[in-house]
Design brief:
Elements: E1 2-8, E2 17-23, E3 30-39, H1 42-50, E4 63-70, E5 82-85, H2 94-97, H3 107-112, E6 123-125, E7 128-130, E8 143-147, E9 151-153, H4 169-180, E10 188-192, H5 196-209, E11 213-218, H6 221-230, E12 234-237, H7 243-250, E13 255-260, H8 265-269, E14 275-283, H9 297-303, E15 306-309, H10 317-329, E16 339-343, H11 347-355, E17 361-365
Helix pairs in contact: 4-5
């Protein structure tokens, strides 16, 4: 067992506590990664609040770092490799074999249940089990155990501390545009919510896909200013009384695509009538399980509109994440404008700032 530092969510608590834990050596197919930095994603807060993941637990699923040790059966990675860590998938179900592992048949137990599929965990505190393997990593820690299949190598000239969110938030937003919707050049698109996922979608739509009209929608004016900086052609306040009129002025006849990142079902539902004929609404957020859509079925059918769910940007991580990194380095994916860095000791402040909208993408640096 190796001693590490981690931010632990204990039973009955909301704040994370910095603790010294012990971590196992990597098992078959696993890799031990020294975490350099990890993004904070809204899903971490969902797991904190929803009671899905047992406690005590180390959350975190946008890690990047350096390989320290590889377990038995691992090929393609060695100590010293720089890596970004993405979500976990079984690798053998029909969806994984079709290169859409976000729909893996074991996705929920592998990513949300805080343990390996056999129920074992890789962390402990004074002999007590601490749940690990959240999204195949639990990266709110100086070190984490990851399935080798969740890793993507990071080139030497890429800033490693920025790489973690490419494994979740950035790839989700950009992937919705480029993989799920395949937005063509000249199209119109509205992105609901100007957080990290939404602004990644804005940047990808404008600078990579070449959409002509990119409408960012949010309730915070300062976020709409960032949206304009990363590629939005129009910025609309989501609470505006004349929202429909503004949308139609920006894109007469409606928008071709809408991506909802807000998780507000009632708000996303308002955009179905604002779609152009044969338009598509993509749902990429965390939605209350009891929510349901209500829409006119005849109107939906006769206009050829579609509503689709999107997991992890329909990403094949081995190919898609490096392509996004290349777009960033070429200036076509300016997500560095979304980032604010924090030290590990400030992780609770980083979470608070993220939740109240003061920070778009918080990234926590680990101590050297």
């Amino acid at each position: 067992m190796k001693e590490i530092q981690a931010a632990v969510l204990w039973p009955g608590k909301r704040d994370l506590a910095l603790e010294q834990l012990a971590i196992e050596a990597p098992r078959e197919g696993e890799v031990l990664v020294r975490v350099v930095a990890t993004g904070i994603c809204h899903t971490d807060m969902v797991l904190r609040d929803a009671g899905i993941t047992p406690r005590p637990v180390v959350l975190g699923h946008e890690g990047a770092g350096v390989v320290e040790e590889v377990g038995p059966g691992v090929s393609g990675f060695a100590a010293g490799d720089r890596v970004a860590i993405s979500f976990a998938a079984c690798g053998s179900c029909r969806h994984c074999e079709q290169d859409v592992p976000g729909y893996c048949e074991q996705f929920f137990p592998l990513n949300f249940f805080g343990a390996r599929l056999d129920g074992s965990c890789g962390l402990e505190k004074d002999g007590e089990k601490v749940h690990s393997h959240v999204f195949g990593q639990s990266s709110f820690a100086s070190h984490c155990l990851c399935p080798a299949a969740s890793l993507v190598k990071v080139e030497e000239d890429f800033p490693l501390e920025l790489a973690g969110p490419f494994g979740c938030g950035f790839q989700t937003g950009a992937g919705a545009v480029l993989n799920s919707l395949k937005v063509p050049a000249g199209a119109s698109i509205a992105v609901l919510g100007a957080g990290a996922v939404g602004l990644a979608a804005v940047a990808a739509a404008r600078h990579i896909a070449g959409a002509a009209t990119v409408i960012a929608v949010d309730i915070h004016q300062e976020r709409l200013e960032v949206a304009a900086a990363v590629g939005a052609s129009h910025s609309l306040v989501g609470t505006a009384d004349d929202l429909q009129e503004q949308v139609m002025a920006a894109s007469p006849g409606g928008v071709d695509y809408v991506i909802d990142t807000t998780g507000k079902t009632a708000f996303a539902e308002r955009w179905v009538p604002l779609l152009a004929a044969r338009g598509t609404l993509a749902l990429v957020a965390s939605y209350p399980p009891e929510d349901a859509f209500s829409f006119n079925t005849v109107s939906l059918m006769t206009s050829g509109k579609k509503i689709v769910g999107v997991m992890e940007g329909d990403s094949d991580i081995v190919n898609f994440i490096p392509s996004l990194m290349a777009h960033f380095q070429a200036g076509r994916f300016p997500v560095d404008k979304l980032v604010r860095f924090y030290d590990l000791a400030e992780i609770n402040q980083a979470i608070e700032d993220s939740e109240r909208g003061a920070t778009i993408k918080a990234i926590v640096r680990m101590p050297d």
